[in-house]
Amino acid sequence: MKHTSLLIICLFILASCSKEKAVNIEYDLSIPQVNFAVTDLTEALQLKSYQISNDANVVIKFQLDPGSSKPQGFKIEKTSGSEILIKSMDQIGLMYGGLELAELIKTGTDLNDIPTITDSPYIEKRGIKFNIPLDVRTSSFDDSGDSAQNNIVDMWNIEFWEQFFDNMARHRYNMISYWNAHPFSSMVKLEDYPDVALQDVCGTTVKPQENSHYWNVPEMPSSKVIAHLKVLKKMTIDEKIVFWQQVMKHAKNRGIDIYFITWNICLNGASPPGPNWENEGQVGKYGITNDYKNETSKDYLRKSVKQFLLNYPDVTGIGVTAGENMRTPMTDDDKEKWLWETYGLGILDAKKLQPDRTVNFIHRFWWTDFKYINKYWGNYPDPLDMSFKYAKAHMYSAVNPPFYKSFSDWMKQHNLKSWWNLRNDDIFIHRWGDPDFASRFIKHLPIAQTAGYHMGSDGYVWGREFISKQPETPRQLEIDKHWYKFMLWGRLGYNPDIPNNRFERIIASKFPETNASLLFSTWAEASKIIPQVTRFAWGDWDFHWQPEASMDIWNDLKPIDKFRTNPTMEGSGILNAHDYVKAVLNKERITLKTPQDVVKNLMTYSANAIRNAEQLMTNATSKELKQTLLDIKSMGFLGEYYAHKINAIVALEFYKNTGNTTQKAEAVAHLKHAVTSWEKYTNINVPRYKRQNFARLRTFDWKNQLEAVKKDIEFAQNMTTYEEDKRADKK
Question: pTM here?
């Protein structure tokens, strides 16, 4: 009897304990966004040893409640009983609330300690700019780089996009803009122009690094490229249409709007290959050309736009560029007239068949004039926003770039908002992560004139990584390799005031074997290096300056003379070497940051990054953590290199002005240190990463670059003064 009673008591206790660790989740199965959040929530609960059961003390409820939040917002609250309520006025907010709760649980918050949380988006639309290489015949802007050529096939892989959109939702992105010069040939078939529709997915056997001139007009593939096609995937145009319908449906089920943005006039797949002498006078299929006066071409594009919208009901909007192939003799009036008669009328044709359809329109501010935009687009029936390159090609520079200000006044005058095009043409290889920089950057966006932002690159495809020498199988998506960077720009766009301890907890959850606090601070410090350098050595566009490689389009490695004369970004608060030396020699008061300040910062960031990464490496067990620490250490060596190079530049500038040979000797010594730093930069990366051809720059190879670094020493040793240069010029 005693044993029986004891058994009953034990079973009761076990049942009670089991019930305490059981959770019931109540939600509407018909809402796909919530289904996704519940999947993550269930995984987080099970990771913490909770069981999902209908017989549970704790109940998590998802509730649509019109008065509970702003759009995309949510509220999480515990009732006086054992319920946790997730409430929102819409499905996307419910999804974000579920993902928030899942993250709290995964990062160590007990269900009994869930706080009341109310959140809503700081910026309504938070997007990714994705230059998409659909096919070598329908390219994005510049597909001559290895990133595009290695990613064409994955653009037609549904698992790729499902994983990509799932991560976008977790990071709170709700918009993707696909950029392609002319996607329609790969995505549409027309009754009047049936032969334009491209069957199969094709690449080319032409190697861009060996034949870069074949991409001399990058957004318009040349006849040489088209003559050397290779089939990468067999697909009919009907299969392609079904594929993209599935892709877009998955995006919608993750709360993500779809936009397609084009360059013009580039009727790829229909017109002749890109302009070069051998194509002069040729016409494409059905007489289609890139001549803006060609009425057949306009009819073809208008019908393509109409059918594109009819094919894809989940497309939110279309965007255009008044360029790159809209040059003289086209006037600004000609450009806008052509865009309206093709895109504008094509959209209206689709809306006649779908009168309830809203098609948002994005018009880039590029090579045009608002007088003519308004003339043709002033009565556009749906939302119309502009798009502006907020930090030109370098979002990793200043948190408050000044370039939008004149454009901002113009927008106020015309009551318009802008999508801020955040161009990352700075960092492709290394894992970046500085929450403070991202938060401050987001907060400096002019909110009253902000339609949203989309972050991405112009010559790089953020698809699947392709340069690792010890890759995962299959290779990682770039959004997974660079998870921290993508998370920061999405999450901080939604809420720029997320405290740092939340990011530390996320890091601790991902890398439980490490000191998360030290990794957080070390990662942030290493990530300050490239923005610091880019502010000092500014070049507006991607081909002017790629700091990770120290390259521009004209040089394998930025030589010391070109580096020295590169202008400083307006408003950055940093003097370049020439201005600094001139001020010192004239005994002028210097109030701005000097090159010495830049060097001091770089040496501090670098020393801390290298030292702390080495310390953290002693306990690193996961491959992902080891690679992250090696990236951090690598950025440290890059910072050292730039610090020594800037010191050399300043010393040489003094020598040029004064003839003081001691300054010349100092410069040579600094450049020798720069060689040592670049050697370390090379040695840490060559075992891990392949060389690659950058679309806008040519091939980046650490070992080859080392030889260019060494040549700087010879350059400095042979440098003459300004007076000697003048005497030589007179002779």
Answer: 0.95
